[in-house]
Amino acid sequence: MSLETITGQIRAKKFLAHLLKTRNLPHALLLSGMEGIGKGRLALELAKALNCLTPPDPGTGAIACGTCEACRKIDRRVHPDLLWVEKEGTSIKLARIKEVRERCRVRPFEGSFRVTVVQDAQALTEEAGNALLKILEEPPPRNVFILLALDAQMLLPTLVSRCCHVRCQPLDDQQVRDLVAERWNLSPSQAAQVARLSFGSLERARAWAEGDRVERCRQVVHRLLEVARGPVLDLFLDTAQWVKESEDLEQDLECIKFWVRENLMQCLGMTEETVFDDTDAHGGRLAEDPDMLLRMYEVVENAVQHLRAHANKQLVLEGVCLKIKEWVDGKGHRYSFPGWRQDLSL
């Protein structure tokens, strides 16, 4: 099969194909980028290229036949020389890396190379990361390690330094639109909405396509504006209740980020319609100042990163709501307090 069967990732595919063609594939690769953009598919295709039993002619552009027994086993992730390391709960623990180390002590069972794929490598505990580092510093022969991570900065710097780093890019809206329309039988307008909500990730697109997530996004933004427009002292109680009720706070923040992005795109004249046009969540001050919208987007994006780093959920949400309240009310606005609180003597 060819790398061209993978949607997007033109630069990454070209680079990896060159490494395979020149036989300069390093013992450790780091594929970084958001989830749902094809990092896992790239890892599987590399594993097939290294272990294919009937390699295709180089002139065809294919890197593996895709039909031999080894390729079929790798596709199903049942090949004995393919180790797929995943999180157990919220992290990848030391015991799992010790298992990998023991497997690497022996030669590959069937294939030419043993390929170890560490999915969500940013979830490695410090002990597990250091154990993996020792393996990469003295790599056993005929072993290739492929680390998949959201961002290289979320890994130990020493671990990154031992890998050839390949950055994978989000898919463009047209690619996502075509794929979701075909896979989930969506109308052109529905597919366009899902593509904008996905931010270039097929995993996010799937989440939006399989449920009425657009309506949920509207509800999240409506709730945000209710909190931001209320008295500041009530904001802390409201955010505490929000955190308690939310099933997925990170997804709520992604909804807010998408709302800011939609406002920014309309403000810059890049789109005429948004999914918020028929709600109270669109318009007002937020659609007037591109610089302010960019700063707001950065605030929400930082909040998402803090949440992924296991920061306190309520503090993260409070920070976002307070900042948006400041922008909704206007810079320098004196926060409003309920009438009964204004009578309190200091």
From TrEMBL:
GO terms for biological process: DNA-templated DNA replication. Pfam families: DNA_pol3_delta2. Signal peptide: none annotated. GO terms for molecular function: 3'-5' exonuclease activity; DNA-directed DNA polymerase activity. It comes from the Bacteria. NCBIfam families: holB. This is DNA polymerase-3 subunit delta.
